[in-house]
Structure formats: structure tokens, C-alpha cells
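INFO batch 0412 | record 1 of 1 | parsing
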Amino acid sequence: MRILVQRVSEARVSVAGEVIGEIGAGLLILVCAMQADDKANAEKLAEKVAKLRIFRDADDKMNLSLKDTEGAALVISQFTLAADTTRGNRPGFSAAAAPEKGERLYEHFSDHLRKQGVFVANGRFGADMDVQLVNQGPVTVWIEG
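INFO prediction complete | emitting C-alpha cells
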């Protein structure tokens, strides 16, 4: 799986003008399942994200995790993270998992993140979404696994 994690002070996702997911302080997580991924990949990344120490402590060091801060997560499916731009100017997405598999792994990632004690809001898989965020820091981290 490939995920892009952004530390946010707030984030929301809308479909057709209706807000379907919203959080305050925490993480916006863009998730892409790849062809070779399985549930173990989703679980490993969910556990990593819950423990990723990118929040500031009392000494202003990035030393706290989402679990430590009791922050929330807004999880959005993002197949374009599979983009291959090595040939020409039009990205290819053939490395992404098929939609049915991608949706199952996206949901499994979200469910496993909840099992880590994190409040999780979601986008709508496969929908045309508008995502708004205030990236805090800014802090943005790319993770594969």
C-alpha cells in the first residue's frame, strides 16, 4: 500500500456539496492499495500510522503519535498514488489494485486504524470528492508497505 499522511489542524471531505467526513486535529491519510497488497499490508500501515511520531511534544519536538494526542484521522481513497510517470506525460495507474480489491483494503485499513483506538472518518470510495485541509507544519509523510 501507499499512503500519504498530512498532519492537519482540521480536514473535511465532501461529495456533491455534502460534507461526509470531518475531523479536527489529527491526520489526513490518502490511501492507495496496490496489486500485490493484502490485509497484512493494510494492518501493518494502520499500526504504523497510529504510532507515527509527528506531533509536537512540550519541548516542540516531533515526538508524539496520533494515539498520544488522541487525534483523529480522515481516510480518503486515492488510487492516483499509484501513478507511474516514467513513460511520457500521462500517468499510468496499472499498479493500483482493481477497484473491488482496493475498496476492501481501504475499508480494512480504516477498520484496523479504529482498532488502534483512533477516531476515523472516511471519504467515499470511488466518488468524486472535494477535500479541504489545513496542513499543520506543514508535515507530509509518504509511507509504503
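INFO post-check: Residues 2-144 form a domain with the D-tyrosyl-trna(Tyr) Deacylase; Chain: A; fold (CATH 3.50.80.10).
INFO record closed
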